[in-house]
């Protein structure tokens, strides 16, 4: 291959890359003048970097060009520690740009007849949730619009008609629930899926404690519901959805290593989101060994 063709190929392959981010506007200029290849390339890279950043800073992104939120789904069996994992992630981030949405907020309200026989109602079946409203709320959040999330009364088995939880648009949205991986339409909203995997005995003990203390139920009714509905629903719907997970966290909130790794990943995503807000000509590219700042020195 002629020397000029080699130089052209090398020049076209060189761009300024920073930790998986590429500034498309930056290109190394061809050397001009008698200076040495190494000094001219370095000087050209510095000049291109300064000019490119100055141009990008002036070219502020409009609202329509902002990237969509990063959506994380967190699933697992009842009392597996999903909420604990989510709370630990949010606490470590210390960032108001991360919000939590609970699938439990979207339970269907029971009729008077169903409420009278609530012990025979399967709250762990997919039909127990208003998935259409969940999709509507998540769709609005994905479009950077605030939403009013319902508040469900677990003692009366119905939604509070006059009370809502306002959730503002955020850069990271965590959607948590036992069946958030069950419906493909909900899964398609997610950029990352986490399954919290905890031993069944531990989950049962936590379920008894939670339902008796927080929801005013007696132990016998909790055990009866667990055997009739909770465990079969876990085997039929929750456990099969584990295959869709990108990350599986054994031991739930006790697995600090896994949570720390997830937090670091989210911080990286937030950093990318900030750059995309400021610079319209910044594009996120797949992080590989080749995505680096390369300077060719002859």
Protein architecture, described:
By secondary structure, this protein is of the alpha/beta class. It folds into 2 domains: 3-59 and 280-284, no CATH class; 65-274, 3-Layer(aba) Sandwich (Rossmann fold). The chain contains 9 helices and 10 strands. The chain has helices at residues 3-13, 37-58, 82-93, 112-116, 131-142, 184-187, 200-213, 219-238, 256-278, and strands spanning 17-18, 21-23, 70-76, 98-102, 147-153, 158-167, 172-176, 192-197, 247-250, 282-284. The chain has a 5-stranded parallel β-sheet with strand order 4-7-3-8-9, covered by helices on one side. A 3-stranded antiparallel β-sheet has the order 1-2-10, with helices on one face. A two-stranded antiparallel sheet has the order 5-6. Strand 5 and strand 6 (158-167) form a beta hairpin. Helix 3 (82-93) crosses helix 9 and helix 7 (200-213) crosses helix 8 (219-238). Mean pLDDT is 77; it is low at 9-29, 35-42, 52-65 and 291-298.
Classify the helix fraction into a percent range: 40-55%
CATH superfamily of the largest domain: P-loop containing nucleotide triphosphate hydrolases
Large-scale geometry = globular
CATH level-1 class of the largest domain: Alpha Beta
How far from one another are the termini?
A: 17 Å
For this structure, the CATH topology of the largest domain is Rossmann fold
Estimate the mean pLDDT confidence: 77
Tally of helical segments = 9
Largest sheet: 5 strands, parallel
Proportion of beta-strand residues? 15-25%
In total, how many domains does the architecture comprise?
Answer: 2
By helix and strand content, what is the structural category? alpha/beta
The number of E-state strands comes to 10
Low-confidence stretches are: 9-29, 35-42, 52-65, 291-298
Spatial order of the strands forming the largest sheet? 4-7-3-8-9
What is the CATH-assigned architecture of the largest domain? 3-Layer(aba) Sandwich
Q: How much is the radius of gyration in Å?
A: 26 Å
Question: Which H/E pattern describes the elements?
Answer: HEEHEHEHHEEEHEHHEHE
